[in-house]
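Example (one chain per record):
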Amino acid sequence: MERTWQRDLGGIKVRVVKADFQGRDADALVIPTCNLLKMDEGIPAAVRQAGGEEIEREARELAPIAAGAAVVTGAGRLPFRAVVHAAAIGGDGSTTEARMRLCAYNALKRCCDNGLACVVMPLPSGTFSGITDSTCCRAVIEGIRDFCLAHPCALRQVELVTEDDVLYRDLAAGLERAAREDSEA
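Predicted structure:
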């Protein structure tokens, strides 16, 4: 059953959705990947399988990128205009809280640069070596908050999508904190 929690941050609607990320209605799909932009496991592999090898080919032509950076490719057969590859994982195979925050920020910046108004960011549990799921959620929300409050642009909605109950609660709580801090500022 789909559940949703949403708040506005800097005029951008941020939604936390408990659902499968595939089939969401959005302009772009933001996926976490390694700085070499390989799409061989997890969400990137599912995206390659559903959207076609051309997504990975296009991404690999842009690799390597700095850990924390993001690049945009076509979406192949996926129902999106673009796929944003956010390099959450560095060459050592792990990530950090700062890198996750930077990934979320830079992914949204790339969306704005490309006129994408609605984006979906799936967050699976247990994906990132080096940080806990809770830390990952906090960092992603902080990166989104920092971007939303600093960059007026065409971006209108960000959906954080997970199928995991614990991640959903962590993301919703983080979003609530960010919205409260925004209103108090």
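Caption: The chain has a mean pLDDT of 91.
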